[in-house]
Amino acid sequence: MRIIDKVLIYDVKKNSIADEIGLKKGDYIITLNGEKIIDILDYKFNVADEYLELEIEHSDGTIEIYEIEKDASEDLGIIFETELIDKPHSCYNNCIFCFMAQLPDNVRETLVFKDDDYRLSFFSGNYITMTNMKESDIDRIIKYRLSPINISIHATDENVRCMMLNNRHAGKVLKYLDKLYDAGIYMNTQIVLCKKINDGTILEKTIIDLSKYAPVLKSICVVPVGLSNNREGLYKLEELSSKDCSDIIDLVLKYQEEFKKKYKTPLVFLADEFYLKANRKMPNYSDYGDFGQIEDGIGMTALFEHDFKKEIKLLKEKNITLKESKTVSIITGKIVEEYMIKKAKAIEKIINGLKINVIAVENKYFGEKITVTGLLTGVDILNKIKCLKSSRNNIGDYIILPKVMLKDDEDIFLDDTKLEDLQENIDLPIVVTDGSAKVFLEAMLFSTKEKNIYKLGERDSMQSYENSIKN
Predict the structure, then answer these.
(1) Is 263 helix (H, G, I), strand (E, B) or coil?
(2) How far apart are CA 85 and CA 41, in angstroms?
(3) Which of 41, 270, 374, 439 could form a disulfide with 404 if both were Cys (CB 3.0 to 4.6 A apart)?
């Protein structure tokens, strides 16, 4: 574990405690409450005290100790150069399914950096494999009560896990689950499902093994492997067929019913893609609890469907007729094309004068096997709209797209296309929604007076993974 000799104060917030006591950009923290700082965990844990001793080295080399009394919840107002203070821990694995290894050439650096950092798991919801961790790291998780921790398991069969992660230590570190369980650290677990590798009996074993950690273990999330067109020289993996997805649903359903009786929760959850691809009914809204794994594509459709029914009922009661008829176009991924067409028809029935196009964009940047909306790129959207325009299709008054396509803290797509460049090239207004059903319906009635970009219902999102590691 690397102990930093001193920590640079990158900046100081105005009118903060740090500002009031005279700390400046360029000063260094030597110790906090008599301890050296390893990373942001040490800082946040110690700074929560009501009484602090802060040893500072000023830019001129003088050292001064400050005694500070404050409220426990009050921050000092010190800004660090990076979110973690320390550098993020990188991944030691070479997973056979790693999506970052399948990215096209020349993508931005933050997309190909593979983090495997338990601190980002706590702060940002990232999944870790634990293969680069030591007992001391687990001790820090327990000491600072970093709960929940999200862990990529993939298989509890040690040989299968080692093979999938290409790491001979990948099986042994599963012992850390016992220590986290004993300490009451809540865990969410993930399985990236690869055909003929960790499905079938291996999947059953993994579900059974992990369920023994409930209720400290809050979820077992199963997601399908993503296969792009950029897999030359990589391990040969097969795409999950509709039948494969249906078989997996049946297998998981058996355990969900058992766990509902035992733990009052299904415990094991499948990504929406399984149900959409198999053309099977989604689980009930109530089965997803607090929708804690929605960022992993678990329960998005059920949540949207539940809210859509509620919101469209309210909209229907208003009996809306547009003063001027209009056409709008919804941009979406191929996997939800039929679902969105049904929603569009339902909206058209209750809003007189509204015509809705559903434009399902094929993912040529990553490959046609990638069908989810969140991985669409600006260039594919632009080319699709240009093609429709050249065929004299009526794109409409404006297009609607969800924020999930964009970087969390910047209006760019995965291919670095800027949202403003897309808007200028299609020569139409763009309405960006937060993905909720309420805002989705608001977008249908939105008035765009100019060819511009409009953002509706922007919600606070988790700390961006890319923002966490960009420095």
Answers:
(1) helix
(2) 9
(3) 374
Burial classification of residue 447, based on how many CB atoms lie within 10 Å of its CB (0-12 exposed, 13-18 middle, 19 or more buried): exposed
CB 358 within 8 A of CB 388: no
Q: What is the pairing mode between strands 78-79 and 11-12?
A: antiparallel
pTM of the predicted model as reported, rounded to 2 decimal places? 0.88
Task: Report the C-alpha gap between 70 and 255 in whole angstroms.
Answer: 51
- Planar angle of CA 245, 299, 344, nearest 5 degrees: 90
Digit-coded pLDDT (tens) for 267-324: 999 999 999 999 999 999 999 998 988 888 899 999 999 999 999 999 999 989 998 9
Rounded to whole angstroms, the Cα distance separating 438 from 281 reads: 23
Beta strand residue intervals within 406-469, DSSP E: 430-433, 453-455
The torsion angles phi and psi of 338, rounded to 5 degrees, stand at -65, -40
Condensed to tens digits (0 to 9), the pLDDT of residues 375-385 reads 999 999 999 99
- DSSP state, 39? S
Percentages (nearest 5) of helix, strand, coil residues in the chain: 40, 20, 45
Q: Which of 95, 99, 179, 193 is nearest to 133 (CA)?
A: 179
